[in-house]
Design brief:
Helices cover about 40% and strands about 20% of the residues. The protein contains eleven helices and 16 strands. The protein is globular and about 80 Å long.
Length: about 400
């Protein structure tokens, strides 16, 4: 099993400065490699420069600029060039698929936050000491940096990445051969229906409240964003006050992100611990949060009819704040580690079908969903909570999937 461990770094002032220089120099290498590809294609008869060509130039680059490029790990610089090569591969793949191309862009210093070391021991070294002792990671050009290791690392460390988030630094260890943590069987099977009024509702009728973390800092975040917007464009990224205002906005978003992540881990762990089989809707958050198409007015040129964009924007904000996609990914990972089964099912009409498992008739009608919380079948008159009905139908569909597989 492959697993990633993310730990907080506690660098000294000098080490933090060295980490910042490492990011800036790798960002400069990325942008220079991108510029070379652009120039070769535009000015040299549409010549394509590939990763192998640019990797072969690294030795000369390190010799020419020993202060900025020669001090860092050769393998980490190769990983940065591979990152650019993957961006171009994705660009050409989207062109062939007829999608929006998205040509690779130059990275600003504030948007290049990760340096990867492809192999433990090559430019970096993770000290595998017993849990409870002070852990450190050695980085070429930086030194031995203290690590706040809050849990033991299992398996073999394959790659090491250093990431900056705001004014914090983290180390990410990608490990393979990680043993599973099988939990004792419970015999319980459950279906969950996710929503925005309740974060999720189980087929047993239990509701998990939606914490709505973004609402808790909405006023403070709005004030910080208004203050950031007062700076004119010509002075942005040039003054100390503007950088402080931008850090304040980023800090609030980071706080919400950490709270949401902790809530998702806690909720997923509870579900995996108590149930052997968990069924959920196969949701596409990107499609659900898509803005409505404009409605041109047939009677007036360059005029449009109301299309409900404002109401849809509010709904999209609630969906994105709930973070269903992240929660489902965490649930799947924890279930795999504990040898539990997670079954995604088709979400169509789950909240419009009268549930057979509660004595309903199985009739499908959109009018049966009277309100957000109430379901009343137009055929047999069965009444129940709409989210509970959805969770029951999800569980029923998972049972059909299990029967088909068996």
């Amino acid at each position: 099993m492959i697993r990633a461990y993310k730990f907080l770094l506690r660098p000294t002032v000098r080490q933090a400065a060295a980490l910042g220089e490492m990011l800036r120099d790798h960002c400069s290498l990325y942008n220079a490699a991108l510029q070379e590809r652009r120039d070769a294609y535009r000015h040299v008869s549409k010549t394509s420069v590939r990763y192998g060509d640019q990797s072969a130039q690294l030795k000369e680059i390190r010799t020419f600029d020993p202060e900025r490029q020669g001090r860092w790990s050769f393998s980490s610089q190769q990983a940065t060039l591979r990152r650019l090569d993957k961006a171009f591969q994705a660009f050409f793949r989207r062109i062939k698929a007829g999608e929006k191309p998205g040509y690779p862009r130059f990275k600003g210093v504030g948007h290049f936050d990760t340096v990867t070391f492809p192999k433990d021991g090559d430019g970096c070294r993770w000290n595998s000491i017993p849990h409870g002792q002070q852990a450190r990671v050695r980085l070429q050009g930086v030194g031995h940096v203290r690590v706040h290791r809050h849990r033991p690392v299992q398996g073999r460390v394959k790659t090491i990445s250093v990431k900056r988030e705001g004014n914090r630094w983290f180390v990410i260890l990608a490990c393979d051969n990680v043993p599973g943590e099988d939990l004792p069987p419970t015999g319980a099977v459950i279906g969950i229906d996710m929503g925005i009024t309740h974060f999720l509702t189980t087929s047993a009728g239990e509701h998990t409240p939606n914490p709505r973390f973004l609402d808790t800092v909405a006023d403070e975040l709005a004030e910080a964003q208004r203050h950031l917007a007062t700076f004119p464009k010509r002075t942005r990224q040039r003054t100390k006050k503007h950088r402080a205002a931008a850090r304040r906005v980023a800090k609030l978003h980071a706080k919400v992100r950490r709270q949401r992540l902790y809530f998702h881990h806690k909720t997923a762990r509870a579900l995996v611990t108590d149930n052997d089989v968990i069924a959920h809707e196969r949701l596409s958050t990107a499609r659900m949060t898509k803005s409505p198409a404009p409605r041109p007015d047939p009677d007036q040129d360059n005029a449009f009819l109301p299309n409900g964009a404002a109401a849809k924007a509010g709904l999209n904000k609630r969906i994105l704040d709930a973070g269903w996609g992240q929660f489902i990914a965490i649930l799947a990972n924890k279930a795999e580690s504990a040898s539990r089964l997670v079954i995604p099912v088709d979400p169509r009409n789950t909240s419009r079908t009268c549930p057979l498992s509660l004595g309903g008739c199985g009739h499908v009608d959109g009018r049966s969903r009277v309100t957000q919380a109430k379901f009343q079948c137009t055929e047999c008159g069965f009444t129940a909570n709409a989210d509970h009905v959805g969770a029951l139908n999800i569980l029923d569909r998972a049972g059909l999937v299990l029967c088909t597989v068996a």
